[in-house]
Amino acid sequence: MTLTPALTRHLNNPELFSDLTSMRSLGQPSVSRTFQVFNPSTGELLAELPDMGVAETKEAIDKAYVAQAEWAAMTARARSDVLWRWHQLIVDHTDDLGAILTAEMGKPLAEAKSEVSHAAAYLQWYAEEANRIYGETISAPSTDRRMLVIKQPIGVVGTITPWNFPASMVARKISPALAAGCAIVLKPAEQTPLVAGAMFALAEKAGFPEGVLNLVYAAEGDAVGHELCTNTKVRKISFTGSTEVGRLLMRQCADQIKKVSLELGGNAPFIVFDDADIDAAVDGAIQAKFRNAGQTCVSANRLYVQAGVHDEFAEKFAARVATLTVGDGFTPDVAIGPLIDTRALAKIEHHIGDALAKGGTIRCGGARIDRDGTFFQPTVLTDISSSMRVAQEETFGPLAPIIRFEDADQVVREANDTIYGLAAYFYASNLKRVWRVAEALEYGMVGINTGRMSSEAAPFGGMKQSGIGREGSRHGLEDYLEMKYLCMGGI
Are residues 330 and 477 in the same domain? Predict the structure, then answer.
């Protein structure tokens, strides 16, 4: 691993950073191929990493397979203690981990530190949950037998994490697996692998046995993903990313009937009813739409506003959006960082162009920012119809289209008219409406009068083609456990 001053100059303690990113004792093989990681705000080279492939992935799987038995055999308390130590190390190094995250992903430093804290919260939660893996006894039909249920770790888990939350997604995926007694092979996104490397180095300091945690760096994920899906020593795949890639991984796992957890695309509606607190709804929409420059799977993608309050909301919302500052994440008071790459810029421009050609109106923003980096003005569109791409596809950028609607039945019908079902939001005061709309929306998570709802204590996941399984909460632990029925005769 070769690091550059463009990265280390942002750290409080470059010597500590060098130690944090040392992978010498994690058993990673030496490879001649390398790939580079860049800062999307400046285009500066941050690091050069080993470009691993199938051979290195197999080696990592073999190490995890050997380590699995020892880790699973440890007491729940012992596993919990290691997770607790890792949690504390993450907390202790929040500033440097946040700086690494901002450098490679671009989000504002305060937001990056908040993400690191969120990652630590998952480690804390599952350090506690490790001690609460319970079985059950069943009343037997005869007196000469006993019937029991125990839960055991599923085995080696292959995980693939996305670029948009490169710290919290690592923790959210692997902390329940580790608590359950599983060993891990992780492939982080090629755009943002550095914070994962630093977190794994801290995990080594926390005392995980060798081989329990294995990191595979790769510039292209296809070969690594295929090996994880088809290798018989891997018992489960956990992936966060696009629905298209999720379908591919699911097909590759099918021959082995391999278990999968998939957190995939979203097309989140954000609904404002005429009895809503409009100022609160504006605040919530800012949070739900522009956090991480709109590059989140739960980002509000379609803003539906009832006709009676449409104009008031659009005016107040556009005025607020126009004040959001855009720039390098290390600059104080910046609210929005860059998009991850030029393809993201092209997609948002395509969506705006399509909307304008079909009658849409720009209320603010609408263009790239003329400076180094992949920056785009936060944008609000009105006069949006369901025929526009921006109403049908996930933009994944700082673009907010506002759609006028008349009644609750209509908006619920339109909100549900998508293959996705990850997150939805709505603002309303009438309790009868709140209950009916919340139950009618076909989404795994619904925010009611709030624009943020993620928590380590709550189940995160979607319906329909937004995924399979849940992450976070006590339910997230179950995805890494096998249920075994024991019938004892001759008692």
Answer: no
Q: 460 lies in a domain?
A: no
DSSP 208: P
- Tell me the C-alpha distance between 314 and 318, whole Å: 6
Assess whether 166 and 230 both reside in one domain. yes
Report the number of distinct structural domains present in the chain.
2
Reported pTM: 0.94
Confirm whether 70 is a catalytic residue. no
**Cβ-proximal residues to 423 (8 Å cutoff; 6+ apart), any chain:** 266, 268, 297, 298, 443, 444, 445, 446, 447, 453, 462
Residue 156 and residue 61 in contact, taking contact as beta carbons nearer than 8 Å: yes
Query: Domain range spanning residue 215?
Result: 2-264+466-486
Residues 84, 18 within the same domain: yes
Q: Are residues 445 and 472 in the same domain?
A: no
Does a structural domain hold residue 461?
no
Single out the catalytic residue among 115, 129, 204, 263.
263
Give the pair of three-digit tokens for residue 462: 């979607």
Tokens of 268: 């989140």
- Residue 16: the pLDDT is 59
Average pLDDT, the chain: 95
Question: Residue 294 has which token pair?
Answer: 């709109």
The answer to whether residue 198 sits within a structural domain is: yes
Task: Answer yes or no: do 351 and 218 share one domain.
Answer: no
Residue 11 or 458, more confident:
458
346 occurs within a structural domain = yes
8 A C-beta contact, residue 266 and residue 231: no
- 49-94 pLDDT, tens digit per residue, is 999 999 999 999 999 999 999 999 999 999 999 999 999 999 999 9
pLDDT tens-digit profile of 127-152? 999 999 999 999 999 999 999 999 99
Residue 144's identity, in one-letter code, is D
Burial class (CB within 10 angstroms; exposed 0-12, middle 13-18, buried 19+) of 455: middle
